[in-house]
Specification:
Blueprint lengths: L4 E5 L2 E5 L3 H10 L11 H11 L10 H10 L3 H20 L23
Antiparallel strand pairs: 1-2
């Protein structure tokens, strides 16, 4: 199960979550690049917060997202959680399949792969 942040704002429940589709949307449509968070903090942190709405609240207006952000408590803790959540779809994509081992495709190379230390 994916990690989620749940809260209520003005009587409406919200669920923040990242999925493969929402992360792909962020990268393609919002210009989000996690590699330049340190260099473009003022741009990337709001995108990270806005992107967490894409999975469950794709039509929410930016004005509402900004209003919600302004009322959020413990923003440092919030962004730590968002960073952790954002990485989950990548980790899930790289996991080996679970379940029936008979349906798992194994692969080999025709060269010796060198260990990278």
């Amino acid at each position: 199960m994916s990690k989620q942040i749940n809260f209520e704002y003005k009587g409406k429940p919200y669920c923040l979550e990242y999925t493969r589709a929402s992360v792909k949307y962020m990268e393609q449509n919002m210009g989000f690049n996690p590699n330049d968070i340190q260099d473009k903090l003022m741009t990337r942190l709001p995108q990270l917060f806005r992107g967490a709405f894409v999975a469950h609240h794709p039509d929410i207006k930016n004005k509402v997202v900004e209003a919600i952000y302004d009322t959020m408590d413990d923003k440092t803790g919030l962004f730590k959680c968002l960073f952790e959540m954002y990485n989950d779809p990548y980790n899930e994509m790289l996991e080996s399949p679970k379940g029936d081992k008979g349906n798992v495709v194994t692969w080999t190379t025709n060269w010796n792969m060198e260990d990278e230390d």
